[in-house]
Amino acid sequence: MSNLLEHFYCSYQVTKSPPQKNTYQNTTNMKNIAVIGAGTMGNGIAHTFAQFGYNVQLIDISQASLDRGLATITKNLDRMVAKEKISEDDKNNTLNNITTYTSIKDGVQNTSLVVEAATENVDLKLKIFKDLDEVCAEETILATNTSSISITQIAAATNRPEKVIGMHFMNPVPIMKLVEIIRGYNTSDEVMEFTVDLTKKINKVPVEVNDYPGFVANRILMPMINESIETLYNGVAGVAEIDTVMKLGMAHPMGPLQLADFIGLDVCLSILNVMYDGFKNPKYAPCPLLVNMVMAGKLGVKSGEGFYDYSESRKAEKVAKMFS
User: Fold this and answer.
1) What sign does the CA torsion over 5, 47, 299, 288 have?
2) Which residues are catalytic?
3) Lower CB count within 10 Å: N or C terminus of the chain?
4) Is residue 166 part of a domain?
5) Is the pLDDT of residue 181 over 90?
6) Does the annotation flag 97 for ligand binding?
7) Count of domains forming the chain
8) b vs e for 103-118, b when ≥16 Cβ sit within 10 Å of the residue's Cβ?
């Protein structure tokens, strides 16, 4: 989400709502889900739940972000219609299942599950979960799409740690099958079973992992990306050469530097910092080149330049001038 949203959470004070009756024992009867954040992950999560018939309440403080999120969902659905994966009616039904809100208090009403998909920032997430705990119904499950931050730490910001869980979706959400399901120290068996069952109902594959920095996906992926950046930084090979070795030699669909651009170099840096802080192991320390690129605003695809130049194409066909 945008800096505007972060600013909002630093100053916004919620009013506690009266308790509402809700239940999460049966995913078949659960149809209302809120998603916090209309960015890349948030709109993908909203798209996926809506496509499977759930009523999605998509929340972002920025109306412009909501508009962009809906435009992205519409574009992705149009692509699916063109490929004959869904019908025009399916597309329209999916869009009709999504309602947008700029107020958290209004957006979380009558929901059994809230999925937070905000920026990978610890302080921001703790503030969001504290606020959600105050305005959500007592039985509402609070899930986070964090890719690295401790579920136990996030849960500690609430008075319902047994109902807080990690649901780490992969990007692009409508396509990628995996969802890492992360149990916090106090997450109940009932909430775990509910979340696993719900994940299956949206045609994803849930994999249960334990609550350690980076979980499984990023604990393995990010050191590989970081080492690829170190390899470039040390002059062993160029951008295209490093990616070609990994694509042709290791059968990766895209090279690690291109993947870093796709993820966002700021996101990669944030995840590495979380793991470095959590493990205190120098192998997770981010490469100085990565740090400098993020400070310079070279974030990858979303900024138009990272290891590749995306000014003319999003296909990583041209190495950035700095590295060519």
Assistant:
1) positive
2) 147, 168, 180, 218
3) C
4) yes
5) yes
6) no
7) 2
8) ebbebbbebbbbbbbb
